[in-house]
UniProtKB/TrEMBL annotation, chain A:
PANTHER family: TRAFFICKING PROTEIN PARTICLE COMPLEX SUBUNIT 2
Residues in the signal sequence: none
A GO cellular component annotation in the UniProt record: cytoplasm
Any Pfam family: Sedlin_N
GO biological process: endoplasmic reticulum to Golgi vesicle-mediated transport
SUPFAM superfamilies listed in its UniProt record: SNARE-like (SSF64356)
Protein name as catalogued: Transport protein particle complex subunit
InterPro entries reported in the protein's UniProt record: Longin-like_dom_sf, Sedlin
Coiled coil regions, renumbered to chain: none
Protein's organism: Fomitopsis schrenkii (Brown rot fungus)
TrEMBL record, chain B:
One Pfam family it belongs to: TRAPP
Name of this protein: Trafficking protein particle complex subunit
Record localization: Endoplasmic reticulum; Golgi apparatus, cis-Golgi network
Chief subcellular location: endoplasmic reticulum
Family: Belongs to the TRAPP small subunits family. BET3 subfamily.
Region (Disordered): 27-51
InterPro entries membership: NO_sig/Golgi_transp_ligand-bd, TRAPP-I_su5, TRAPP_component
From TrEMBL, chain C:
InterPro entries: Longin-like_dom_sf (IPR011012), TRAPPC (IPR007233)
PANTHER family associated with the record: TRAFFICKING PROTEIN PARTICLE COMPLEX SUBUNIT (PTHR23249), TRAFFICKING PROTEIN PARTICLE COMPLEX SUBUNIT 4 (PTHR23249:SF15)
Domain of life per record: Eukaryota
A single Gene Ontology CC term: TRAPP complex
Keywords, alphabetical: Endoplasmic reticulum, ER-Golgi transport, Golgi apparatus, Transport
Protein name: Trafficking protein particle complex subunit
Origin species: Fomitopsis schrenkii (Brown rot fungus)
Length: 181, 242, 133
């Protein structure tokens, strides 16, 4: 069972992403590649659209490649994941205007994916794609990511639009994901 | 054997403290001492890999008393900031704009850190989404976090519905600044205006924020932070009213 | 008891601040004040060198028949000079307060250039406050 985390700047630039395979018992088959759950036309259709998008998300891809202990099936799947995360941003933006909670659980759904989000007061968005319900775990996970993000913000060399490349940050987020997801 | 750095040096990394020891004559003389004598230099370098460098991620975010900065130290720093900026601009407007930009970068961090300190212990952390409560929290929370005291007043412009003012009778950061007469338009509180602008922007209330000197007979340092909201903010407030 | 005047002399001997209180002092031109301050700077240097008992901070008080000069020397070489009546016994505490006001209103002011004449409104008002008790 996998989780996908994206940190997006107030202008929706991806600053950090993480794919986490949970060791906890999954209800669905853990290894099921996304493509098999989609209608046969969908992956190829996405592949075309998303090549265009990939320019904008190259920062996160580069991160994937070097950080890369985990990789999803193929490049296309990763694109689909990013597509879902991006698509949910509109929904999140809509809710953020009316709801004063930072933790927004299950804001969007796409096939087997549920999207939960956490929005900081500075309009930094944490988006998590997950398959199973785990509200408390996700909430605690977001809370720790929030703390780590605030600490990152305190670095004078970091701005709200700088991709987060700190290895310590990465290690802490991974540890937190392991603990809660 | 390597003593913990004096608390005053705690802002320096451990390696910086060690390198200063290399430069001091006392430390270098130990190089020529008998091998049996404990040497500060060798101990320090040997223990280095064992103690990984402490990062910001290892420190708690909560405010501690000892972490307060001396007002004098800040005054000197801010004085240098103004001098540095002044050398690189043409005219007062430019100077105020640069100070505003610097304040903006501070404000982004203030907002995130302050919210974390206020909300982290709450069961369900919240953000401000209405303008007036946000303005109130700037007046009290932000001011308290940055200056250690709330601002003195909030006013709403009578003529313009999109203008609000935060008033500080004696802004701590400009307390020691005397602006020369030929620059009397200048308000160094533009820095504060930048902080306010960043906080409003972050919360989703884009605005143009400027600082103005509004002295009175008894309060020569009185400063008004003028907030001019973008139209979208007023529209949204209108929509949320229902 | 009266305080008549305050001078601030920079480390090179230049008069950077001069103010009279009341009408006790004769009116001199700014050029004359500059010369007097330079002379005092020289005298002070001589007294600092004359000390028979090792290093000295130089003259602290110079008294005349009707008035005295009290001098406060800071570690950076700036001198604060207070012209008072002979009976005035608060000169030292006043000078200490002046030094404090100088550190706050002058040194922390980004529009002041070190070693240059002090034209800072904040300092003027602080001095006025100190002199009026």
């Amino acid at each position: 069972m996998s989780h996908h985390l994206f940190l997006l700047s107030p202008s929706d630039t991806p600053l950090y992403s993480l794919t986490h395979y949970s060791s906890k018992p999954a209800q669905t088959t853990a290894t099921s590649p996304l493509a098999s759950n989609l209608p046969s036309w969908s992956t190829s259709a996405f592949a075309g659209t998303l090549t265009a998008l990939s320019g904008a998300t190259s920062a996160t891809q580069a991160h994937h490649a070097q950080g890369g202990t985990v990789r999803i099936g193929g490049g296309q799947d990763r694109h689909v994941i990013q597509m879902i995360a991006n698509a949910s941003l509109d929904v999140i933006e809509e809710i953020v205007r009316k709801d004063n909670m930072m933790y927004l659980k299950s804001v969007d759904k796409f096939n087997e994916w549920t999207v939960s989000a956490f929005v900081t007061p500075g309009n930094m968005k944490f988006v998590l794609l997950h398959e199973a319900r785990n509200d408390d775990g996700i909430k605690s996970f977001f809370h720790e990511v929030w703390e780590l993000y605030v600490k990152t913000m305190l670095n004078p060399f970091h701005t709200a639009h700088t991709p987060i490349r700190s290895t310590v940050f990465d290690a802490r987020v991974r540890a937190s994901a392991k603990k809660y997801l | 054997m390597h003593a913990a750095p004096h608390p005053r040096f705690s802002v320096l990394s451990a390696s910086a403290v060690q390198s200063s020891e290399h430069l001091s004559p006392a430390a270098s003389s130990t190089r020529f001492s008998l091998p049996s004598a404990p040497s500060i230099n060798t101990n320090a370098t040997a223990s280095k890999p064992a103690v990984p460098r402490q990062t910001i991620y290892d420190r708690p975010l909560n405010k501690i008393r000892a972490a307060e900065v001396s007002a004098s130290a800040f005054s000197f720093l801010f004085s240098e900031v103004v001098q540095y900026t002044q050398k690189r601009v043409n005219g007062i407007n430019d100077l105020e704009r640069r100070l505003n930009t610097l304040g903006y970068r501070v404000g982004l961090r203030v907002l995130e850190l302050m919210s974390y300190r206020n909300e982290a212990t709450a069961k369900a952390p919240k953000r401000e989404i209405r303008f007036l409560p946000a303005l109130m929290s700037i007046h009290t929370q932000v001011w308290r976090a940055v200056f250690g005291k709330p601002a003195d007043a909030i006013e709403k412009s009578v003529e313009n519905a999109d203008e609000y003012m935060i008033i500080d009778n004696d802004p701590p950061i400009t307390r020691n600044i005397s602006v020369p007469r030929d620059m009397s338009q200048l308000s160094c509180s533009s820095f504060t205006a930048g902080i306010v602008e960043a906080v409003l922007d972050g919360l989703g209330f884009p605005a143009r924020v400027t600082a103005h000197n509004t002295p009175t007979e008894t309060l020569p340092n009185r400063t008004t932070i003028l907030i001019k909201l973008e139209k979208s903010v007023l529209d949204r407030e209108e929509a949320l009213k229902t | 008891m009266a305080i008549w005047g305050l001078w601030v002399i920079n480390k090179a001997g230049g008069l950077v601040y001069q103010r009279n209180f009341g009408d006790g002092l004769p009116h001199l031109t700014s050029n004359e004040y500059l010369v007097l301050a330079g002379t005092l700077h020289g005298i002070h240097a001589i007294t600092a060198r004359l000390s028979p008992t090792g290093s000295s901070s130089g003259a602290n008080v110079i008294s005349g028949e009707t008035f005295k000069l009290t001098i406060l020397l800071t570690p950076t070489g700036t001198k604060f000079v207070l012209l008072t009546s002979l009976a005035e016994n608060t000169a030292d505490t006043v000078l200490q307060k002046v030094y404090e006001a100088y550190a706050d209103a002058v040194m922390k002011n980004p529009f002041h250039t070190p070693e240059m004449p002090i034209r800072t409104e904040g300092f003027d008002s602080r001095i006025t406050a100190i002199m009026s008790g």
